[in-house]
Write a structure and sequence with these properties.
The protein is mainly alpha-helical. Helix content is about 80%, strand content about 0%.
Length: about 260
Amino acid sequence: MPEILQYFIVFIASILAGFINTLAGSGSLIMLPLLMWVGLPPIVANGTNRIAVVFQSATGLATFLKKSSIRLENPFWIVAPSLLGALLGAYQATQVSDKFFKDFLGILMIVMLFLILLKPEKWLKEKLQNPEADKKWYNLLGLFFVGVYGGFVQAGVGIFLLVVLVMGMEKPMKMANAYKLIIVALYALPVLIVFLWSGQANWKWGLFTAVGQATGAYIAANFAAKHPKADRWTYYLLIVIIVISIVYFYWDKFNLNT
């Protein structure tokens, strides 16, 4: 394939990933197979994806701090376990073999497909806010392990954060989403540094796809404002793309093993 065509395909796919991630989340489930398709080893693809995550999460946090009036309580008890877990998860991700991570990603895509179909955000029942729940050891442990997961792979981490924040820490959904944004924004850069330190991130593809995803996010924001059903369309599009990624992933794996 001509190199210019490869860049074109990756840029268009990055725009699509940014668009979907803004409206439905789980953009990393698109980006990781894409970065592996261009020839990056699985671990390097994982690290490279974090470059775009840093830019997106920083932009999201800046927008939140500028426009939101939500008052957050006990932020240290919520952010600290997640950050520590994310650093551990990122370190572990740099130590595993490419084969292990690729096999893990293949299973993860199937698991996340079912989670997306189940829409766990819809069945999370809000409770009366209870600040004391923030410091319960099992909630802190839950945030730590979700942080480990986020540092290891990132894809779909928002769903697991909401489960702990809403069901465990008894946060209202709007506040839980705010905490989710802050947690990811604060661990994104330290996690990227871990991958860079180990030499497992590609700046060229990372910055290139970050620009594409930022473009997609901008388009999504304007599209959603004009089309009330944008979230629903994007949800179905995400499912289709993940199914295609799973089929391609296992078809490629099968061909390599035969």
